[in-house]
Amino acid sequence: MARVLIVEARFYAHLNDMLLAGTRAAIEDAGHSHETITVPGALEIPGAIALAAESGRYDAFVGIGVVIRGETYHFEIVAGESARGLMALTMDGLPVGNGILTVENEAQALVRADPKQKDKGGEAAKAALTLLELKGRFD
Ligand SMILES: Nc1c(NC[C@H](O)[C@H](O)[C@H](O)CO)[nH]c(=O)[nH]c1=O
Ligand SMILES: CC(=O)[C@@H](O)COP(=O)(O)O
């Protein structure tokens, strides 16, 4: 049984609740365990995963959150840098799934967070577990 750490950026609680449901369901359906920690925003997700990975307590990681475009360039920073940080961790050999929604509005986020619709949380969990399985094959 793999131990999966879910790191959620709880910027929009109601959307995160849906993402979390899909993420947890995918992990449980695959027969693995999960633990969840919460950070303020998407920019903190990669750092939290890096810190947790050093503990050696987890086999895979899923970052989830919602970034909705506002009035300024900050959207590009938050969306781009959180994705870049997760990709850097993946390229370092960590099985990481990216479930951070980067959207124009709440309507787009709802469709993607809902486990009964696009289920991006479950998709990110499955991606992390796929990388974990590949890691086992190549080790
Ligand atoms: N605007 C959103 C943010 N912004 C906050 C940043 O992620 C970060 O916590 C802050 O800049 C302090 O370092 N975060 C989201 O997750 N979603 C947003 O829409
Ligand atoms: C993605 C963001 O950082 C955004 O929510 C912030 O809104 P604004 O650009 O209007 O400050």
TrEMBL record:
One of its GO terms (biological process) is riboflavin biosynthetic process. GO terms for molecular function: 6,7-dimethyl-8-ribityllumazine synthase activity. It catalyses: (2S)-2-hydroxy-3-oxobutyl phosphate + 5-amino-6-(D-ribitylamino)uracil = 6,7-dimethyl-8-(1-D-ribityl)lumazine + phosphate + 2 H2O + H(+). It is an enzyme of class 2 (transferase). Pathway: Cofactor biosynthesis; riboflavin biosynthesis; riboflavin from 2-hydroxy-3-oxobutyl phosphate and 5-amino-6-(D-ribitylamino)uracil: step 1/2. It comes from the Bacteria. Its EC number is 2.5.1.78. Pfam families: DMRL_synthase. The keyword Transferase applies. One of its GO terms (cellular component) is cytosol. Keywords: Riboflavin biosynthesis, Transferase. The active site is at H74. 5-amino-6-(D-ribitylamino)uracil binds at F11, A42, L43, E44, V66, V67, I68, N98. (2S)-2-hydroxy-3-oxobutyl phosphate binds at E71, T72, R112. Belongs to the DMRL synthase family. PANTHER family: 6,7-DIMETHYL-8-RIBITYLLUMAZINE SYNTHASE, 6,7-DIMETHYL-8-RIBITYLLUMAZINE SYNTHASE DMRL SYNTHASE LUMAZINE SYNTHASE. Catalyzes the formation of 6,7-dimethyl-8-ribityllumazine by condensation of 5-amino-6-(D-ribitylamino)uracil with 3,4-dihydroxy-2-butanone 4-phosphate. This is the penultimate step in the biosynthesis of riboflavin. This is 6,7-dimethyl-8-ribityllumazine synthase. It comes from Sphingosinicella microcystinivorans. The gene is ribH.
